[in-house]
Amino acid sequence: MKKNLPIENTRKLLKQWDCKVKRKIYFRKFKNYMEAERAELDFWLSLKPEERVGAVDSCLLDSLRLKGKLNESPPRLQGVCRILKRP
């Protein structure tokens, strides 16, 4: 399996390629919505956790590139902290 590059290296590569990379897109027709949902779930469950994280990272970089914000720092998850009083 190919090692994932840090996000900065990935950004540099995307800039160098300048969207000249061709991707193969595969699709299937499904009989109904439930069949499509099941196939999608099976696909994601078939991936290793590292591959899932890499796919999400790739989607984030694609989104930033399309919005013209590839040079900005990527958005971070918002932290949530609650203090609860116990009886």
Shape: flat
Proportion of residues in extended strands = under 5%
Query: What is the rounded distance between the termini?
Result: 52 Å
What share of the residues lie within helices?
40-55%
**Secondary-structure element order, as H and E?**
HHH
What does this 3D model show about the protein?
The chain is mainly α. It has a domain at 33-70. It contains 3 helices and no strands. The longest helix has 18 residues, at 49-66. It is flat, with a radius of gyration of 18 Å. The mean pLDDT is 76.
In short:
This protein has 87 residues and is mostly helical.
List the helices and strands and how they pair.
Elements: H1 7-17, H2 33-46, H3 49-66
List its salient traits.
single chain, 3 helices, 49% helix, 87 residues, flat, mainly alpha
